[in-house]
Write a structure and sequence with these properties.
homodimer; 363 residues; alpha/beta; Aspartate Aminotransferase, domain 2; 4-stranded mixed β-sheet; 13 strands; globular
């Protein structure tokens, strides 16, 4: 039995999962409740309330989807996009590409607006890409490149379109204002700046998007109408599928920890850790990859210097120190490292440790 | 903060979740690992091996899908059924109905074969329903009625059709032989007889089904080709989505506990607890609802006697004793109770407790 193997205790500084908040870990072991138990329903309601606080929204339709962040992406698309609908997608990384794939499977007429990986998207180009799209979709924080895309300008200029935002790596880490910025639907993941294990996808959708939804989405599991009947957004409690109880306990507790600190304080913590990391990496003589002015504090890409063995460095960090950092994906494989500083990982001690350990390994 | 509220410790005898094995609970709190960490990949591989053992299969494509049991249902259908494909569905409860809904959303031409709720399906009627269906789909253990449907006869007589089986409430609780019975694809849930928290859907699919798959399923999240590239069924480790790490830890440990006991011993334990429960309920003067000879030991339906207040009885059991039992759904709402005895709940002490408590409340 592998349970006899020693358990490794990682410092998780890859693109996610991060180290979860201790409160979130402890809550995983909370005694199981049924999905219709009044005590569980109250915890679920509180979880949705807490999600509204971190999303900065009053949307009644704010729920944790029972899957990882990519299930959130699929939920957003299948409920809004049907055959022939025009969807403008900004693509400057892996997750923009994924949006195109998901939208295509919904039968969408996808209009791509590309920017080079490492650069941010031009909001004006997105707004000008089509005269009357149903949806404009963008990734707020591109986990594959460490780039922040501008969202606020898209909300201001979207016209009749619905604005769909991937907030997987931004929610809880950098400012995101669902209502003030005019975002119609957004989704996230629990294992990034929210500091919880992977497994749930917080999603919020406003009345404007709801009025233009697909009545019977191609996905039963991600049908927000049916999910809402259970989650209470319609006032009822009709069984849809069995909620992932322990994960909801954990999200509830993780959000509790985050909100006890304060959302803006958490943004500030991610910002200051990211700045210290960026400065420290440059002091080590390394070059940051993402466009200046659009660098994410929570996910940093750094160019692997010539002559340095990507895989050997990451393996040494993992084996000698138990520190995980991420490699590049797609066209960036072998070219960059991705260093996450999210959730409970986003503390000065981890920045200090990473810089010291990386300096030691590549020094 | 609601964390200051006392935590309730339920005896979960509803239709699921059950009480998870202590090993499965403990593993939820295991230190987080990245989804590409060699230690995690090994645990995932072992989990898939353990699933093969409980499914009684050698199928390489045996994985935990990152969602609850209903995501398993959707994964099975979207990967096998496209527009115009004929699907014969047996319907004698809520989950057969759900199969029709899911298949319809895939564009299937659905041929229903109905039986009254509480009766089992006639395999001959399913086999005769259409001359050349692509898929014959059946729920092995109907959680809404407590009925076991015959699967082995379908495998023997399916001809060219693919046999798709919902094993959500059967896997680990009653005999199920994927390879020996000729089941082409089956899925389950973790929160029933496997004794783990809800959140994952074990799924197995054979080469015969794989050869007739939908090349690009309408769901990106549930695309078994892409999932297999991460889970290692193709030998590679290509990132698809971030696995729900803590839930995989828990499933790995829960399956470890189950297999340490032995699969056949676990079947026997569910059988003996179920028989004791059935006999005890009849001694209390209650009438069992499901057809004799096709009663599930792990999920028992009992007719609510005239003059007995359904909701009041369940509330009293919950509030006085912390025991959850389930109400009826659909046409059985208010007419039956559903009493689960699954996973770690399936122990003589819980049967004894439930019978004593129910006798006290309705006595």
């Amino acid at each position: 039995m592998s349970t006899e193997r020693p358990l490794s205790d990682r410092v998780l500084m890859g693109p996610g999962p991060c180290n979860p908040y201790p409160e979130a870990v402890a809550a995983l072991g909370r005694p199981m409740l049924g999905h219709l138990d009044p005590e569980f329903v109250q915890i679920l309601d509180e979880t949705c309330d807490r999600l509204r606080t971190v999303f900065r929204t009053t949307n009644p339709r704010t729920v944790p989807i029972s899957g990882t962040g990519s299930a959130g992406m699929e939920a957003a698309f299948v409920n809004l996009v049907g055959p022939g609908d025009v969807v403008v997608v900004g693509v400057n990384g892996l997750f923009g590409e994924r949006m195109c794939d998901v939208a295509t499977r919904c039968g969408a007429d996808v209009v791509r607006v590309d920017a080079p990986w490492g650069q941010s998207l031009d909001p004006a180009a997105l707004l000008a890409a089509h005269p009357s799209p149903k949806v404009i979709a963008v990734v707020h924080a591109e986990t594959s490149t460490g780039v922040r895309n501008d969202v606020e300008e898209l909300g201001a200029g979207k016209g009749d379109a619905l604005l769909l935002v991937d907030a997987v790596t931004s929610l809880g880490g950098i400012p995101l204002e669902i209502d003030a910025w005019g975002v119609d639907v957004a989704y996230s993941g629990t294992q990034k700046c929210l500091g919880v294990a992977p497994g749930l996808a917080p999603l919020t959708l406003n009345d404007r998007a709801w009025a233009r939804r697909v009545e019977k989405p191609q996905s039963w599991y991600l049908d927000l109408g049916m999910i809402g009947e259970y989650a209470g957004t319609s006032g009822a409690r009709k069984y849809h599928h069995t909620a992932p109880i322990s994960m909801v306990f954990s999200l509830h507790a993780g959000l509790g920890a985050l909100l006890a600190e304060g959302l803006e304080a958490a943004w500030q913590r991610h910002e200051s850790c990211g700045r210290a990391l960026h400065e420290g990496l440059e002091r080590l003589g390394l070059e940051l990859f993402a466009e200046k002015g659009h660098r994410l504090p929570e996910l940093t890409t750094v160019v692997i210097p010539d002559g340095v063995d990507d895989v050997a460095v990451r393996r040494t960090l993992l084996e000698r120190h138990g520190i995980e950092i991420g490699g590049g994906v797609g066209p960036l494989a072998g070219k960059v490292w991705r260093i996450g500083c999210m959730g409970h990982t986003a503390r000065p001690r981890n920045v200090t440790l990473l810089l010291a350990a990386l300096g030691e390994v590549i020094g």
